[in-house]
Amino acid sequence: MAITLLSAGTALSGCVGDAGGTMTPMTSSGSAPSSATPSASASTTPTRSYGRDPAQVYDVIPPAAGAPAATGTVVVVHGGFWRAEYDREHARPEAQAFAGAGYHVVLAEYRRAGMPGGGVPGTLDDVRDLLASVASQPDLPKPLVLVGHSAGGHLVAWAAGQPWARERGIVGVVSLAGVVDLGAADRLHLGADATRDFVGSGPGTAAWTSADPMSTLPPKVPVRLVNGSDDDTVPPVAADDYVARAMAAGGDVTVDLVEGADHFAVIDPTTPAFAHVLAAVHSVL
Q: To which H or E segment does residue 227 belong?
C-alpha cells in the first residue's frame, strides 16, 4: 500500500476534556490535507494514509528517546461517540504516554458519523483497512495491541470479534470506558442516542448486528476492559452483559474497575488510573 506523509501541524484537530469531565470540540475544520509532501520540521509527526479520504490517516509515534524497550505497537483509537466533531487530537497525550513507556504507537483517525462515508459500515471499514495498513508496515513491530476509548473502545472490541483479528497480528485489545454493548448503550441513551446516529438504524437491523461486539462473541483475542467507577458518560454497567456473555462463551475477557475514576481519567497519563491502562496493555503481550 502506498504511504502518504502529511504534516502533523495540519493534521486533524480535536477535542479536550475540561475540568468538569466533558469533551469540548476544538474549532478547526476537522480535516487533514491531501498533500503528500513531508514537513521538514523536526517537531512534526509522520502521518500515513490508509485510504483516499482525509480522515483515513494515522500518526506514527516512535518510542521516546531513552525509554525502556517495549514489545510491539500500540494502536490508539479515540472516542467521541463516533461524531465528526471529535477527532484524534484529544488522545495525543495518551499516545505520547505509550511512547514514553517504550512502545511504538499509532494514533488512528477514521471517518465518523456526520462525515461523508462515516457511520456504519464506513467507520467499520476504516478500522479494518487501518489495521491492514498498520500490519503491513515493516517499521511497526508486531504484535499489535489495540487501545480504544469510549466509542474507540467499541471499535477495538468490534475488531477483537472479527475473523481477521489474529491475521493482522493483534494479540489483544484494551477497551477504556468502551461502548462494548450497543444494545445497552441504546437503552441507556448514551451520548443522546449516539448509537443510533452511528449505526443509522435501531436494534435488530443487519447494520446494527454487523456493528455490535455482542454479535461476535467470544472475541478472537483477549479483551481487557478498564472502566472508571465514577464514569457517568459510559457507566460501567453498560459493559456488564458483554463481560458475562463473553466469559460464558469462553472468551478471555477481564474488567478492571478503577475506583474514583471518571470517563476521562483512563486516557489522562497524569492520573493514577493510567497505571491500570499500562498494566492492561502489558497483560496481553
A: strand 223-228
The label of the residue with cell 472516542 reads 79
Between CA 71 and CA 197 the distance in angstroms is 38
The candidate with the shortest Cα–Cα distance to 30, out of 92, 91, 111, 95, is: 111
The DSSP letter of residue 28 is S
User: What distance in Å separates the CA atoms of residue 172 and residue 144, rounded to the nearest whole number?
Assistant: 7
274: how many CB neighbours lie within 10 A of its CB? 23
pLDDT tens for each residue of 167-191:
999 999 999 999 999 999 999 999 9
Instruction: Check: CB of residue 56 under 8 Å from CB of residue 126.
Output: yes
Over residues 252-271, the mean pLDDT reads 98
Q: Does residue 74 surpass a pLDDT of 80?
A: yes
Q: What pTM was computed for the model?
A: 0.86
Dist CA 173 CA 165 (whole Å) = 10
8 A C-beta contact, residue 55 and residue 29: no
Residue type present at position 83: R
